[in-house]
Design a protein that fits this description.
444 residues, alpha/beta, 19 helices, 11 strands
Amino acid sequence: MKFYNREQELELLAHTRDVAFNNHSQMTVLTGRRRIGKTKLILKSCENTPTVYLFVRRSNEATLCSQFAETASRSLNTYIPSEITSFVSLFETLMTVGHHLSFNLIIDEFQEFFYINPSIYSGIQDIWDRYKDTTHVNFIASGSVYTLMYRIFMEYKEPLYGRCDSVVKLKPFATAVLKQILSDYHPKYTNDDLLALYTLTGGVPKYIELLLDKKCFTMQKMIDAVIQENSIFLEEGNVLLIQEFGKKYGNYYAILSAIASGKNTASEISESIGNASVGGLLQRLEEDYEVITKKRPILAKEATQSVRYEITDNFLRFWFRYIIKYQDYVQTGLFSKLAEIVKADYPSYSGLTLERYFREQLKEKQAYKSVGSWWETSRGKGVEQNEIDIVAISAESPKVLIAEVKRQRKNFKPELFQQKVEVLRTKLFFKEEIETACLTLEDM
């Protein structure tokens, strides 16, 4: 797949490189989940400039250093002793080269030093502090284990705290980019094809590439590709999360499975895992791992008890809803039967994802200061709670967009929707001008 988007990130990285090459060394930290395109972005930003790329895998430090020294020598056309057995010594040698040569130094999966030799970080700090003002090294540290990268660079007790000049957190492609990519691969795509791609990939570049390179342009073909023997998608959730969660991942998996199945309040989640206390675990999933997010009705106070949780990553939401739930099908090789289950449930499942798609699309327009949903708790049995899919508050005028989302317009009930709008007008927006809409597949 060709390189798409990332204009803002490329501009920032180019500016940082110019400062490093013309003034003094710069340190950039780049994070983002696996498959998000970190390495591709960094290498794109370093095109046509001297670059040393080092990938840290869990290995013996001396063995790694020998390989790194050879890579650096070849990349910079300069002598680096292969006898170096300490990464700190190698780092100092490279910084010394920076006295007379401007170059990019990329260390990918930087957090892996934590498992090889944690003292490397304090060694880097010492050398960086001594050399950065008199050298011209554009140092980029990249990593996909967010909790470790945050700890290494953002916790004040850690040696590299306060050392980075720029921090880039790479996010999935925006909806407009997703449309552009699908149009390039399949110009006659339908909006249902677009929704399927968004539902399964959430805009993660590698997932998009894997599906489209196989010419999977429809929901049916995408699901068949995801759920088949030897598909990387089957183990992808484990690869993404177990390293983050550690040995206690079972509790987190149980909570995420509950949320993926529609149990999205703390009480429902607790009940689903045996009435266990979940407050601390939910907080860690939200604040430390950023795997879930807490949703409140729009304009609700932070202390409100009306809170719902949702999985932030579209792929993980799908993975927990189907791959984990039906793990017995996966283990016994019943891939076609599992694919049938997913396809049968898809119209209902993708309807919720369509709401997320439109909320993201509205945020990307940067015309609204707040985009969310609204609901109020039912007051008793038999009393249907009022709920509105999308509420978007204009950033520049006293206007509010209130919308209901349906896959098909024929399922929209305008009278019922208008009743809900009037309730919301009375409670929150009695002074604002209200625009209403029904958003469907046709509006993507």
